Amino acid sequence: MSRKSFRQAINEALRQEMRRDPRVILMGEDVAGGRGGTSGVKDAWGGVLGVTKGLLTEFGEDRVLDTPITEASYIGAAAGAAATGLRPVAELMFVDFVGCCLDQIMNQAAKFRYMFGGKARTPLVIRAMYGAGFNAAAQHSQALYPLFTHIPGLKVVVPSSPYEAKGLLIEAIRDDDPVIFLENKVMYDDEEDVPDEPYTIPFGEANLTREGDDVTIVAFGRMVNLANQAADRLEKDGISCTVIDPRTTSPLDTGTILDCVADTGRLVIVDESSPRCNLATDVAALVAEEAFDALKAPIRRVVPPHTPVPFATVLENLYMPSVEKIEAAVRSVAAYRVKEEA
Amino acid sequence: MSGTITPITMPKFGLAMTEGKLASWSLPVGKEVKAGDELADIETSKITNGYESPAAGILRRQVAPEGEMLPVGALIGILADADVSDSEIDAFIQHFNDNFSSGDAEDKNSDTTARRTVDVGDLKISVQESGNKETGTAVLLIHGFGGDVSNWMLTQSALASSHHVIAFDLPGHGESTKQVGDGTPAGFAKTVEDLIKALDLPAAHVVGHSLGGAIALELAKSSPDLVKSLTLIAPAGLGQDINMNFINGFIDADRRKTLEPVLQYLVHDKSLISRQMVEGIIRYKRLDGVVSGLKTIASASFPDGKQSVSLRSVLETFEKPIQILWGEQDEILSTKDADGLPAAISVTRFPETGHMPQLEQAAAVNTSISQFIE
Amino acid sequence: MQISRDILTRSYRAMRTIRDFEERLHVEFATGEIPGFVHLYCGEEASGVGVCAHLTDTDTIASTHRGHGHCIAKGVAVDGMMAEIYGRQTGVCRGKGGSMHIADLSLGMLGANGIVGGGPPLICGAALSHKLLKDNGVAVAFYGDGASNEGSTLESLNLATVWQLPAVFVVEDNGYGEATGASYACAGTQKDRAAGFGMPYFECDGTDFFAVYETAGEAISHARSGKGPAMLHVHLSRWYGHFEGDAMTYRAEGEVARERAEHDCLVNFRKHVTEISLLEGSALDDIDASVKSEIDAAVAAAKAAPLPEEADLMKDVYVSY
Q1: CATH of the domain at B337
Q2: Tell me, what CATH number does A243's domain have?
């Protein structure tokens, strides 16, 4: 056990799985970097934010494959390789780039098994960064997990901490279905204790990071940390919250969400993806349909506005869900009382 | 100043503890206490434990509110006599907090405790060593099925004030290699023997809990020269029965909801099983090789729901001191397994105590061990 | 060029099977019993068969929406295919894929594909598997002149060259992408495109089995020998519309009739092998008869086969979920 950053936890998961299974390979734009450069330096970047640094040195150019900047071909190649015996981990760098290769994910990898009558296995992992808070503006900041969650055949992972990231990534690599693994780019330097040994965290099992009686907060990815902070502040004022980290948006642990709402009767959902047809609407619909009788207050969603992610810091801060916004939403549902009929 | 003021500070339960949460006060302000009375429940990352008053007096202040997380050594309350004025107490608190820095408590221990990895054959064994090596024969602590060094969190630090104390994670457990060999107590005893040699110890006072008790007995059988005395806490190996709901539940449960009731078999006071303890075991079980290792141990040591090995004969042949400590309400191994033993063996049964007396009756267990090995 | 009697026999049988399969679908589709839509490969048989004659089950192919011929050429079972096209539980994809998604990964058939340009990137991946798993396999992407303009295809030509993959890109150029002529939609030439990526280019008459067999052999040997990818440009004509029901108003009167009369790969094959006594006419007649009864049986079995059940709806979305 030692303290590791989110970045190190992901690097270690990749390294340990590549050691365990020679079929695991890495590909993506500058996952090593430096090939064809005039200096001859190898592993020049190790990923645009250094997440895959050092893997080239250990595993060589056959297994750590730099790609041209051609997302359609290499994401498709990853799908094809997965269907024919390898276990590729393809890095899409920024998830926003999915626009260049969605067909290969949505129409190919996701569909093989069903459309081929159960005869295909596509053990593919696509890693990508997501999220705002980096002044990266509209084409490099989106939280597109709802897009993937919408597509049957894909599994979607949104880890909330270094410990979670390592266990969920190893699970993703060992999984026989295509998995989209989304890393919040603001979290790479977050640190916590992470076991040195390989371990797996199963998909579809939510984690309760706080347990309380008054309000249930469902939060995704980095939003789990904000929800925890809000819950800790509210606790001091006597409002105790359960915070649910679903870990995976597909499969989604609907049972835990419904159980917790049944206990608290009040629900706030924190989702940094665009507000229409996102996970917050999905969870709200689930609870409205399955736990209507348990609700003591309207469901509140803490989500960004329906705009592209803005560039200027002041606008980006306005755009993002925050601890304060979560706190306010929880206070409002905690204070809500159903009007008695006259 | 007219009377004594005793600061109550966040205790350090176990070597890894750096902070704790004041889960609840056991007494209201104004209540008189004796030394040893329970003052508060403290929740750590491993366990919730009662904190006993270090002195007599009146609980004058609850400085820490319930639910607050504080570093070890931080002021949580004030004991004082009735004649101490409120303003004196205020001044004391002010002065204490001005001088408190959270690193202090940790620094005091860091020079005497070390966690390291020892190569034992192909295995890497995680060893936690504390106390002074010059104090004579070492005390070796062997945990049970599914446990790790943290099972000794209230034992090791207490014994370390006067002894060289070594706890370690068995193969397949904690931070040691997740290979359990054949999974029998005899197999583990061989590893313990090799560990003792690797640590260059001529012999040790061996303390074994549960399955660790059976391992200690196997060690006493195979290498009696290495064992200076035996303290067996709720040991396996003396009877046939074992609560397989615990063993199988521990192996199968992978969520807090299903694991928590299983872990509650371990203790008489069910509130001791904290959320963090459950989470810690879930995290341990997620490590590669753990569940298959536990299955191997269970099927080797408890095939068909019964203990496979009887080690009662060792109690008759082993020529050095043996004591047995057991909780009367043990729900995993029955204290009646300690009936009918040779008269020379001291058997202590603790009332209102489950399978882990070293946690539930820490002070009494520590006293029993230290008096026994003097 | 020497071709074994065994390969000749098998290739003729495959071409005849494709022809009869497709002609029969043309008839059956009109009855309304076949759900969805089908794209027929009639007229192009020699291409799929001539290429696949060089492949084993270890090798991989990816196909197109016009995939029946490639499936048969790669050895996918005809009765399973027919049942699939009829949407039956006994289909190769258990009635969940249909005409455009027939696949059998155990035979290295990575699927027909409903997306134009879907296959070439997948083939880069399959070729990467062959290279890294060192099984000496090659991966072949069949795609049309229409798909040759897709970004995914052009990216794949680049990637396959950059990674020096054992891949062959087979452009089946039948002159039309749906209802638009290649002369309009394809800028430049396929040859220049191959040259642009530094890839060897081969070209042949796709209605002549022997031409395809020989040229494909060179392209595949190049890829298999570890020298990187190759492009094979096959000139073809399709005898039916883009899909069944397409009246082909965009084609000149007599164009298809002329192709059928002059460039029927089966007729020309028979003429060639019997003239130089490679195979006897009677042997070919036997194959024709055998194939006819095989197709008859496949259609009868498909029509009689059970439909998928409600429980099948949720099956096989994931390996585990």
Answers
A1: 3.40.50.1820
A2: 3.40.50.920
B50 alpha carbon, distance to own chain's centre: 14
- Band (B110; pLDDT cuts 50, 70, 90): very low
Number of domains comprising chain B? 2
Domain with C194, as residue range(s), is 10-311
- pLDDT tens for C263-311 read 999 999 999 999 998 999 999 999 999 999 999 999 999 999 999 999 9
Mind telling me how many Å the CA of C84 is from chain A's nearest CA?
Answer: 10
**Domain containing B21: what range?**
5-100
A140 in active site? yes
From the CA of A267, how many Å to the nearest CA of chain B? 21
| Those residues with Cβ within 8 angstroms of residue C216's Cβ, 6 or more apart along the chain or in another chain | C50, C51, C53, C54, C168, C170, C202, C204, C232
Contact flag A200-B275 (C-beta cutoff 8 Å): no
Indicate whether B106 pLDDT > 60.
no
User: Can chain A be said to touch chain B, i.e. do they have 3 or more Cβ pairs within 8 angstroms?
Assistant: yes
Q: How far apart are CA A16 and CA A13, in angstroms?
A: 5
Residue A175 and residue A21 in contact, taking contact as beta carbons nearer than 8 Å: no
Residues of chain A with pLDDT under 50: none
Is residue C5 assigned to a domain?
A: no
Give CA–CA dist C200/C229, Å, rounded: 8
| Domain interval for residue A325 | 207-335
Indicate which CATH number applies to the domain containing A172: 3.40.50.970
Residue B15 has pLDDT above 80, yes or no: no
Residues B68 and B145 in one domain: no
Sequence letter at residue C210: F
pLDDT digits (tens, 9 = 90+) for B304-345: 999 988 999 999 999 999 999 999 999 999 999 999 998 899
Q: Which of C243, C234, C242 is nearest to C207 (CA)?
A: C234
ipTM at complex level? 0.95
How many structural domains is chain C composed of? 1
Q: What is the C-alpha to C-alpha distance for residues C242 and C178, in angstroms, rounded to an integer?
A: 5
C321 inside domain: no
Taking the C-alpha atoms of residue A155 and residue A145, their distance in angstroms, rounded to an integer, is 10
pLDDT in tens, C123-143: 999 999 999 999 999 999 999
> Is residue A342, in this structure, part of any structural domain at all?
no
Residue B306 and residue B183 share a domain? yes
Question: Which residues 6+ apart lie within 8 Å of A267 measured at CB?
Answer: A215, A216, A217, A218, A261, A283, A284, A287, A295, A299, A300, A333
Contact A199 B254 (CB under 8 A): no
My answer on whether A279 and A187 are in the same domain is no
Q: Indicate if B272 and B303 belong to the same structural domain.
A: yes
Domain-embedded: residue C320: no
| CB-based touch C/A (3+ pairs, under 8 A) | yes
Residue contact A251–C60, C-beta within 8 A:
no
- Asked whether residue B348 falls in the same domain as residue B228, the answer is yes
**Residue-averaged pLDDT of chain C:** 96
Residues of A in contact with B287 (CB under 8 A): 195, 197-199
DSSP states of C89-137? TTSTTTTSS-GGG--BGGGTB----SSTT-HHHHHHHHHHHHHHHT---
Interchain CB contact of A115 with C (< 8 Å) = yes
Encoded tokens for B185: 């107590």
- Residue at A340 is within a domain: no
Closest residue on chain A to C112 (Cα): A116
Q: Residue B286 and residue A1: Cβ atoms within 8 Å?
A: no
pLDDT value, residue B103: 57
